Automatic annotation (TrEMBL):
Pfam families: FGase. It comes from Chromohalobacter israelensis (strain ATCC BAA-138 / DSM 3043 / CIP 106854 / NCIMB 13768 / 1H11) (Chromohalobacter salexigens). The keyword Hydrolase applies. This is N-formylglutamate amidohydrolase. Keywords: Hydrolase. GO terms for molecular function: hydrolase activity.
Amino acid sequence: MMSSELEQLSQNVEILYRYAKGPALLLCEHASYHIPECYHGLGLDPAHRRSHAAWDPGARDVAIALSGLLNAPLVASRVSRLVYDCNRPPEAASAMPERSEIVEVPGNRGLTSAQRAARVEAVYEPFCKAVTQVLAQRKAHDIPTVLITVHSFTPTFHGRVRKVEIGILHDADRRLADAMLANAHRLAHRRIQRNAPYGPQDGVTHSLVRHGIDNGLANVMIEIRNDLLATPEDAHSMARELMQLIQPALTALGVELAHGGGRHDA
C-alpha cells in the first residue's frame, strides 16, 4: 500500500481492535460529525454541524461497547456523512446530499464529477479498504464472522413521532436479523421492529450488501433511537441490552463468542 493511502486511512477512517478474534465485524459509518477544513463547513448553519443530519449521535459509543462485549474489531468513519455517507454507493445522490430532512447543505450543491470523485477517493474508498483488510485478515486466520452495522435515528422525522426504539434491518439475507428478532421477547420493555424506521427501499442497506452479502456473511443493521443514547452510560447500557439479542442469535447460527467475549486480543 502506498504511503498516501495509509495517510488517508489514518485520517478518515479508524480501525479499532483490528486483531480481536470474536465472531463479528462491527461497522459505524456515521460515527463522526467532523468536517475537514478543506470543505469549509459545507456552508452549514452552525446549529446543524453537530445535529443528527451530520452524524448518528451515540452510535459510535454503542459500537465500541459492543466491540468489547463481542471481542470484535470495529471500522468507523471519521468524517461527517454530509461530506460522504459511507453507507451509500458513489452514484447515489444521497452519498453527498444537498438536503438532509430540514437541513440545507450548501457545500453539496452543484458538485462537479471531479469534486464527487475526490470525496469518493478521500472518504468512501478508505472506509471500504479498511473493511476489506479486516475481513481478509480474518479469513486468512479462519475466524468465523458476521457483519453488524450500528446506527441511530431521530425520535421525530419531518414532524412525525417515531415510536420504534430499536430497528433490526436486513436486505436479502435475513438470517441474523431473524435470529435476533426471535429473541425480542428478552427486551419486552423495548419497541423492536423489523426494517424500521428504514428498510431496503430507503437505500440504507448498501454496507450490508457490499460488505456482508457480497462476502457471504450473515449481516444485520441495528438502528437505535438516539434519545436512548443521551450519555455514554446510556450507550453502554444499550449495548448490554442488544447482547441479549445478539448472543443467542450467534448461537442459533452456530457461531460462538471467542474467549467468552468481553475482551480484545492484540
